[in-house]
Amino acid sequence: MANTPTATSYTPSQRSHLLTEKQASEIYGFSLSWFRRKRWEGGGPEYIKVGYAVRYSEEVLQTYFDSMPRCKSTSDINH
After folding, report:
1. pLDDT recorded at residue 79
2. Rounded to an integer, what distance in angstroms lies between the CA atom of residue 75 and that of residue 17?
3. N or C: more exposed end of the chain, with fewer CB within 10 A?
4. Cβ contacts of 34 within 8 Å, gap of 6 or more
């Protein structure tokens, strides 16, 4: 967790739009377990820890999900 961003590493605009993992899950349609697994594995969207609470910046999430590859079929996915 040494590389986990802190609240101070986000701009004031980003901090004003922080979502809980439940809100992020509901808005973006990924399960809570997906967000939790990505935090554990790495490779997921950046997040911040406020005590025990996890928060996601709306701006960071939007950028992360916009950068995901768009596929028309499973054969489009590079393994």
Report:
1. 54
2. 36
3. C
4. 25
Task: Kindly report the number of other CB atoms within 10 A of residue 26's CB atom.
Answer: 12
What does the alpha-carbon distance between residue 67 and residue 46 come to, in Å, rounded to a whole number? 13
Question: Residue 24 contacts by C-beta under 8 Å, 6 or more apart in sequence?
Answer: 30, 35, 56, 61
Tell me the pTM: 0.69
Find all residues with CB under 8 Å of 48, minimum gap 6, and list them.
4, 5, 6, 7, 9, 10, 18, 54, 55, 56, 57
Distances from the Cα of 16 to the Cα of 19, 42, 68, angstroms:
9, 25, 25
Residue with tokens 């990924």: 30
Angle at 42 between CA 10 and CA 62, to 5 degrees: 45
